[in-house]
């Protein structure tokens, strides 16, 4: 009986570790391919455009300095009167993804910081990290939830 119980506990631990470690795995594909998968949601009924992030537009889209070696892609509403923005960031090996994600969240939810938009504000802001990727969504509540859910399912 002890052997069966021990084997069962080992199996549960292995499955638990596998479930936890899957969030640390890097998601394969280009940022554009990943963006296409996660932004294909029913509630997104506005026209969007993708722009590669670079040194000139990084801070406008994230409110943080561009980490060395990082790459990014933003999908914004084509009409600026709609508060919708999805940013995907791929960090270089060794970057502190948790600290960077936390800084993005803090800077974009701090009421003393100016909004990305002048006349509108997003209903919901989410920052999620998985492996070497950070997802930063500012949009309508339902749209934000759907995009984060798709990202977590990848």
Question: What's the topology here?
Answer:
Elements: H1 2-21, H2 31-38, E1 48-53, H3 58-62, E2 71-77, E3 85-90, H4 97-109, E4 124-130, E5 133-139, H5 141-153
Antiparallel strand pairs: 1-2, 2-3, 3-5, 4-5
What are its keywords?
5-stranded antiparallel sheet, alpha+beta, 5 strands, globular, 154 residues
Tell me about this structure.
Helix content is 38%, strand content 21%. It has 154 residues and is of the alpha+beta class. The chain has a five-stranded antiparallel β-sheet, sandwiched between helices. A hairpin with a 7-residue loop joins strand 2 (71-77) and strand 3. The longest helix is centred in the N-terminal third of the chain and has 20 residues, at 2-21. The termini are far apart. The model is unreliable at 5-23 (pLDDT under 50).
Largest sheet: 5 strands, antiparallel
The shape is globular
Helix content: 25-40%
Low-confidence stretches: 5-23
Span between termini: 39 Å
Structural class: alpha+beta
Order of SSEs: HHEHEEHEEH
- Total DSSP helices: 5
Radius of gyration computed on alpha carbons: 18 Å
Give the DSSP E fraction (strand runs of 2 or more residues). Answer: 15-25%
Strand neighbour order, sheet with most strands: 1-2-3-5-4
How much is the average pLDDT? Answer: 86
Tell me the number of strands: 5
